[in-house]
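Honest question from a wet-lab person: if I give you the sequences of every part of a complex, can you actually get the arrangement of the whole thing, not just the pieces? Trying it with mine:
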Amino acid sequence: MFQQGRWKCGYQAMLVAVFLLVPLGTMAQVTPSAQVLNQVVQDAYDKFKDVKDGANADYIPELANVPSELFGVAIVTARGAVYTAGDVDYAFTIQSVSKPFTAALVMQQQGSANVVAGKIGVEPTGLPFNSILATQLLKPVSVNPLVNSGAIASVSLVKAESAEERFNSIMNFFEQLAGAKLTVIDDVYKSEAATNQRNRAHAYILFVNDRIYSDPMEAVDVYTRQCSIGVTAKQLAVMGATLANSGVNPVTRQRVIDSRYVPKVLAIMMMAGFYNESGMWAYTAGLPAKTGVGGGIVAVVPGKMAIVGFSPRVNEAGNSVRAMKAIEYISSQLDVNVFGSGR
Ligand code: DON
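Yes, you can. This is the full assembly:
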């Protein structure tokens, strides 16, 4: 009895000491345990696997052929631990999730984040990702690197003497971010290249306004190839975890992005990662993130982890329905909203 009482006293004293020494705010910052992360990934998968809302994007005809039922959820922490559920080894086209990474490459190559702000822009358009109106209307500040026109401008800023060199530079960078060899999914590339007249229109509007910095059609073609790079949910989560880990790939330990550019990339993701749904995304999930019409979404919890969802059925704005739900759920369960605890 006496022994147990003493233990209890000691335990309570230790708890008091912890509360005195660790301010409450920082306690919430502790990365959750492996067991918690494993469970939350599995729960997110189980909870939303039967959701059928949305439909495969089909304006790129080949995307309509991707099996709609695929669904994967992955977390990679800033220390390189991996937690997964579902179809996390299926390679899908990265599409617009590529855009923040190319913006990072431009900052990296040019040695400045101002290049992106000045030559492309960083304001959210509040309009769909392919809005011609936005590209025309916002001429003085242009757009941002996460909508199609700004992403094509980003590609045009990658240092290269030829289309091949431009693409290889992007591919090498993505491979370092993913810590894996990646390949273009050729059927999707060909399908988009044959139907991307709208993106060509964007490139020519940029051209007449002096907001594109290489041959416009070359930039569109390299951009189309970039969007067709295949990634798995697991690989995409490593790319995101590199942002979460201030630019160092936590699995390979290689520094890929200078730490000073990471907050810039995340800021653009926060403001424009979901296009005309960016406000609602900030309001619900509260995490910088990027979506793609291939069904992938990567969200970043700075300093802690990346959360990825992949599911081909997208909503009107081009954002994957199940991936959004899974990430929102995980953000709220782990209480990692960057704006603070909602509890
Ligand atoms: O340029 C396009 O339309 C596609 N390659 C990418 C668009 C996209 O992923 C929009 N995101 N949700």
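Two things worth pointing out. Strands lie at 55-56, 72-77, 82-86, 92-93, 230-231, 289-291, 296-301, 305-310, 313-314. The pocket of 6-diazenyl-5-OXO-L-norleucine is lined by residues 95-96, 129-130, 148, 192, 199, 227, 291-293, 318-319 (CB under 6 Å).
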